[in-house]
């Protein structure tokens, strides 16, 4: 089972790098093992060149299990997501130009998407004629604080598919790596469309 | 024969994915088998990772022939096209940023292209100095209704090469997969040019 | 020798397609054999999927030598270039979005580039602090007329590196395929910069 | 050791070319051998197609050591960097559209980046909430003069990560090739974001 999970992270990394969404060692990825542990990427590795030896296990508090590798600084957000929703099986945190720029230009705490067929790539959506709201958190280097904000926001209303961190990038998730990749790819397509709409509508 | 057809769909999927035109399981492709049946892609598959086992046969009404796979929701548009024009041999439905955005920005039901040499990539055009009109349908989740609109529009004047669905994407076709791919690639190039002209002319 | 030449055309096609500069069977390429003949690409082939069997020989008037293949309609421009300058060894005609759009937006018959280090990729330039002028011909489907315009323009002042055809694309050349590719790549980079300068300077 | 270094340059070239940052033989790369010598790329080679035979050694004054190859004209900037900072192990000079255009549009001698998480890809930065200043030198064909300007600027305040040359491109460096590539990729991502911010903020 671990082989399948670690392979799914390594493969996701190569694909995400080919799209230009994890430059310069940016990004971090994880896959849930069970109720209390997950595989996560080690800090500082280029995410397009991962091997299984660049992954480590962490418990539900983000503590390293039996490894000398250093987990990503943002591991707490991954473990927070696994704790918040038992149905989340994989989390992909990426850095694209569109997600970085749109999250800076949107002054509110929500990027609203509407009227795109591609919204249907996000589980539970079955029409373009609805609104998809993606939460935007302000960026901070205090991961404890950001994880707490995530929990507070979720307590009011659970987030779906992903959230943005301003000037930073996207967290996308799914019940498994296949769905997490679909949500990531769908959201990035929607961001690219929204960027073009902003440019062309003026 | 079926091997050639199914292979042509699988190959088209890899190429279309490499261009970024079928993200997040979006898009669906088909190839006519005979007067009353066609191969179509199953629902929910990533179109860049197709195998022949992700394809199924449907009859001219879009009904599944001898398969447990679920056809794409948009199969009715494929079979409508095959019924409307006996010379159509392959249909490619794709989602690009340019086709999504241009179809939203054009308020009328026609995107008019003029003055591009690339118009000659669309069969029957032999000059840049003419007008290519690409019909735009409003998006809907009611495929029966959209197929009917397509038939009504066609009855007034047959469409050529492809049509857009607003905020959704492109349907392109040809007498065979080679021509369908050429029409797709030519139209996407023209959309990319038109997008740049809109941006730069202002 | 012919093997080297035909291979150089096939390889150029794959690279040009990977850059997106010959979509939908667009473009045509050639390599001089001797004073009175050249290899050219056959009409209608996708230029990213060429084999040596998609090439034919033409004489200095563009007439086919011993082949059943149909040469590109624009063969006359290739042979005109070989006649105009004995030092031209290879010609690459491509369709990029930037060359298509810039040639439409520039109202005069010259696109002027200045201040780019990349100008030095064009043979004979040794500084950014000079002007590179790329001639723009109006598009026409009359290749005899366009070839004649090329000759008339050249008679007044020989062109260097390449020229644009409005709404159509670029012809780039060099003493051999290596230089033709460098001129093509350098000019496309300069067009991409110029497009961005137009967008960002406003 | 030399094999590792030369291989690192060849590999960097392939990757940089795949990103479109060394078109048309542009760019030059180097890796420090010891206190008084470095491997550098020969002039005129396409940097995406390097082999170890396209590399030569130069001393700390940029003089060729035991080779018939001609070093890049900009070798003096590489050796100046190695002399200025003993911790620099690799230097990558690239030409991207974004670095070319942003360096022309910024009228001052500094491009200031702020508020991007990706700033953390540049060694020594541990927050987005700081300012990264990238020096811009005016372009010149006099490499002795440019190397002297670099030394003068450095004497006032050492540069970090990289600098721009106006209308020309980026020099990025690191303690080794891995870090130089990370700085290059991080800076190019930041330039792409900054370009989009300029376009979208208006």
TrEMBL record, chains A, B, C, D:
UniProt keyword Aminoacyl-tRNA synthetase present: no
EC number(s) recorded for this UniProt protein: 4.2.1.109
SUPFAM superfamilies the UniProt entry points to: AraD/HMP-PK domain-like
Record-linked SMART domains: Aldolase_II (SM01007)
Tagged with keyword Metal-binding: yes
Location of the Class II aldolase/adducin N-terminal domain: 7-195
Cross-referenced Pfam families: Aldolase_II (PF00596)
Keyword entries, A-Z: Amino-acid biosynthesis, Lyase, Metal-binding, Methionine biosynthesis, Zinc
Uppermost EC category: lyase
Required cofactor(s): Zn(2+)
GO process terms (BP): L-methionine salvage from methylthioadenosine; monosaccharide metabolic process
Cofactor binding remark: Binds 1 zinc ion per subunit.
Cellular component GO terms, alphabetical: cytoplasm
GO molecular function: methylthioribulose 1-phosphate dehydratase activity; zinc ion binding
Binding residue positions for Zn(2+): 93, 95
Catalysed conversion reaction: 5-(methylsulfanyl)-D-ribulose 1-phosphate = 5-methylsulfanyl-2,3-dioxopentyl phosphate + H2O
Pathway membership: Amino-acid biosynthesis; L-methionine biosynthesis via salvage pathway; L-methionine from S-methyl-5-thio-alpha-D-ribose 1-phosphate: step 2/6
Similarity comment: Belongs to the aldolase class II family. MtnB subfamily.
Entry function: Catalyzes the dehydration of methylthioribulose-1-phosphate (MTRu-1-P) into 2,3-diketo-5-methylthiopentyl-1-phosphate (DK-MTP-1-P).
PANTHER family attached to this UniProt entry: METHYLTHIORIBULOSE-1-PHOSPHATE DEHYDRATASE
Name this polypeptide is given: Methylthioribulose-1-phosphate dehydratase
Higher taxonomy: Bacteria, Pseudomonadati, Pseudomonadota, Gammaproteobacteria, Oceanospirillales
Gene: mtnB
